[in-house]
Amino acid sequence: MKKFINNPEDVVSEALTGFVDCYSNYYEKHEEVNGVLLKNRRKDKVALVIGGGSGHEPMFSGFVGKGLGDAAACGNIFASPDPGTIYETAMAVENSKGVLFVYGNYAGDNLNFDMAEELLEEDGVKSTHVRVWDDCASAPKDRLTDRRGIAGDLFVVKIAGAACDAGLELDEVKATAEMARDNLRSIGVASSPGQIPGLDKPTFEIADDEMEYGMGIHGEKGIERTKMKTVDEITEYLYFNIKKDMEINSGDEVCVLINGLGSTTILEMSIAYRKLKELLDADGVQVHDSDINSYCTCQEMGGFSISILKLNEELKKLYDMPCYCPYYAKEGK
Amino acid sequence: MKKFINNPEDVVSEALTGFVDCYSNYYEKHEEVNGVLLKNRRKDKVALVIGGGSGHEPMFSGFVGKGLGDAAACGNIFASPDPGTIYETAMAVENSKGVLFVYGNYAGDNLNFDMAEELLEEDGVKSTHVRVWDDCASAPKDRLTDRRGIAGDLFVVKIAGAACDAGLELDEVKATAEMARDNLRSIGVASSPGQIPGLDKPTFEIADDEMEYGMGIHGEKGIERTKMKTVDEITEYLYFNIKKDMEINSGDEVCVLINGLGSTTILEMSIAYRKLKELLDADGVQVHDSDINSYCTCQEMGGFSISILKLNEELKKLYDMPCYCPYYAKEGK
């Protein structure tokens, strides 16, 4: 696997430098750690700090923006940022109204973000967290907290960012972000692996005519490997698995994300969306807003996921607030 | 190559249906042809119609929006839209102030867009065109009109869209878009091919340790095939080739796009941007704005291109006007 890199060890620091250089109208890099900070951010609100391992770009660094994250703490590729990075990143953006951390539910992230919260507490800075576990393929329904966070992270960041902007207090922002998380399910399919720069093997192996449902965004094992199917069949399978997990009724309003894992094209994902819309229409479910993009990738992995966020009045109001960053902009309604 | 499709023959029509379904808050599909139309568009200005072959998503359908294209005429994969499609798409959005077509400089597109212009003329609708030929690897400097259009299309669409919004007349919009085109150069590098859905072979072959400079976005032959190099070496090569072709002086202001061809990650392109910024800084060139994204793809092709737009006062003013579509939003300055 050919990669456009220099020294594999420098990938994350060089990429963060370039990323912040490119978007220097919006971002600055933390002077000491791998944290991306929003310039000209509001200082009168709860600070939203997001983060996790690198390698999933634009997630998380690309979701720092107005009405989104105030900062992102970035780890090495597929590795949690260390507690010091998280702590310093949070300290750089906290405004004495407290810090909400939003991140994917992985053991390393949980441990390191918790340690950062302890460090903040020692400094008298209030903080709390919402762990996203939207991947309904990664553990059974009665073990929600064992599930992984995948592309649905974006919806929780969007809602939490809007709640911060709306002036809610820390415990209210947390409750709202949890509401988004609990109304959200995702599931994906993979057809080819990604590869970490510098390693000589991809994250998994799969035959030329096979695909696997439910794989994670680091190549974690899924729930079923089969021969390649049509995208209509795949979309039905994914949607029915989400419906098995979350009640979706006629009259419900939802937001939908079809997320590419790296090398799957907008063309292919648009075909999937077409089928999904048919299925939602047949169920009487109304789509409030939707996106097709590669927001949470696993390097150049092939495949995509479907995320569905069920709205209620509160979530809809927050979803409809505007947000802006170079990778994700909503005009607001 | 596994693709997420149904019947290969239905890829473009199914994808366009899904794409327009997904962004139905913004777009509608032309009832008869493969045209994407902006809803709620301004009716008091020159209509900007963009288009070309499908398979490069989000280019072109994804650049229909406020301050961007009013509509996109979409061909089959890597094939120009037919004259009827272009004509009908233009007729659906023209406002009696004339139509400007912006598209990449390819024989098929040139022929079909010209024929559509003749059809419009028969109906008494004024139209003209700007062909984008930003790829400086595709023909020598004294044969500009033999060059191909690649990712730099986006800059010409941005400037033309802003010129339309600013209320310029058709001939002025054309002159402005040509000014953008003439101040723009791009060049790319490829490391792996893309594949058209339904075909059993990729667009080209390349060894596991090789890359090629100057390849086109349909896999057209480039200017030099070599062993894989570091991204810093590649970035220097690309920048120096642009500088050989276009005068860039200390004090100049530029906009920069690093465009991924499909499977190349934001992480990798960010490292390239870091090097490019060093080189521009050393030359005393100021970056006014920049992006790292996969805006003009060749299915899941590996590689990226650098596009540089040299600004003058007029181009800068137009570039700084706001625009919005789901794939490309600028807040304006």
Explain the overall architecture.
The structure is a homodimer of 333-residue chains. Chain A is globular, with a radius of gyration of 19 Å. Chain A has eight helices and 14 strands. Chain A has helices at 11-22, 83-93, 107-122, 153-165, 170-182, 231-245, 266-282, 313-319, and strands at 27-29, 35-38, 47-54, 71-77, 99-104, 127-132, 184-192, 210-213, 224-227, 253-260, 286-293, 302-310, 323-325, 328-330. Chain A is α/β, with parallel strands linked by helices. In chain A, the strands form three sheets. A six-stranded mixed β-sheet of chain A has the order 1-2-4-3-5-6, with helices on both faces. In chain A, 31% of the residues lie in helices and 25% in strands. Chain A has two domains: 8-182, Dihydroxyacetone kinase, domain 1 (Rossmann fold, 3-Layer(aba) Sandwich); 184-330, Hypothetical Protein Tm841, Chain: A,domain 3 (2-Layer Sandwich), CATH 3.30.1180.20.
